[in-house]
Structure formats: structure tokens, C-alpha cells
Amino acid sequence: MKLVILVVFLARIAFASNSSCRVTSQSQMTFKFREEHTFENRKAESTKIKDRYPERIPVIVEKDPKSHIQDIDKRKLLVPNDISVAQFMRIIRKRIQLPSEKAIFLFVGKVLPQSSASMGQVYAEHKHDDGFLYIAYSGENTFGC
């Protein structure tokens, strides 16, 4: 319990400036989804998804390979534009069955997105050229923000 409170306190300090935490010392994670599917196939799939579900965002979620947290059961998700990053984080926590006393961090590229930001805002700022939003999760703040 004390660890969770400390993590929340430190997260509030890190985000007090009302901006996302940018990281420059680490390289971006390589997503298996990108390696397994060609750009053309990914682009066609995201376009089809966006045409069929215009109020939803195609998201690829993968675990940081350096993390010792559980793997997610489904890495391709379709999420509403208007949910917050905090709500999305709860979805991820549930899918990986992470106990409430354990911390989880979401990374979009080299950025820890604000928990109050909508997924639509994150998508608008960070979507890949193929039309998907790529999010990595980790049980520890591997980038040191």
C-alpha cells in the first residue's frame, strides 16, 4: 500500500507541469506487430477499422521486453476516442490481471502520456504512419521519468 501511494505521489510530481514526460536517453521499443505485418497490410487494416468504427482508435499494446510483468492476452485493441489514459490503463491492468498494489507504466514512443488526456488526443499526437497507436507497458518506469 505504501508503495502505491509513493508511486502515485511521484507520478503527480512528474506531471505537475501539465505536460507529458519526455525521454531522450532510451531508444524506442520494437513492436512485434510491426515485424510480423508489412506496412501496407497494417495501413490497410487500420484504414478499414477507422472507416468501420470512426469513434474508435486502433491500438497495439505490447509489454516492454525488459519488464517482468505479465503478457497481455490480446495486443490489438479498439478503444473509444473519449476515454482517458487512466481508464485505458485500468483496462490493461484488468487484461493482465495485475494486482492493485503493483504499478504499471504506459509508454507511447518515448513519452509517458498524461493520465487525464483522452485516448483521442494521444492518438492525434502519436499515431504511427500506418494508422495504429503503439503503446508499450511496463511494471517499472524503465525510462526514469
Oligomer: single chain
State the name of the first-level CATH class: Alpha Beta
The whole-angstrom Rg is 15 Å
Spatial strand sequence of the major β-sheet: 3-2-6-4
The helix fraction, in percent, is 25-40%
**CATH level-4 homologous superfamily:** Phosphatidylinositol 3-kinase Catalytic Subunit, Chain A, domain 1
Q: Kindly name the structural category.
A: alpha+beta
The helix/strand series, from N terminus to C terminus, equals HEHHEEHEEHE
Total helices: the number is: 5
How many strands appear in the DSSP assignment?
6
Distance between the termini: 21 Å
Shape: globular
Mean pLDDT: 82
Q: pLDDT under 50 segments (min length 5)?
A: 1-27
Q: SSE layout and pairings?
A:
Blueprint: H1 2-14, E1 21-22, H2 32-36, H3 39-52, E2 56-63, E3 76-80, H4 85-95, E4 105-107, E5 111-112, H5 119-126, E6 133-138
Parallel strand pairs: 2-6
Antiparallel strand pairs: 1-5, 2-3, 4-6
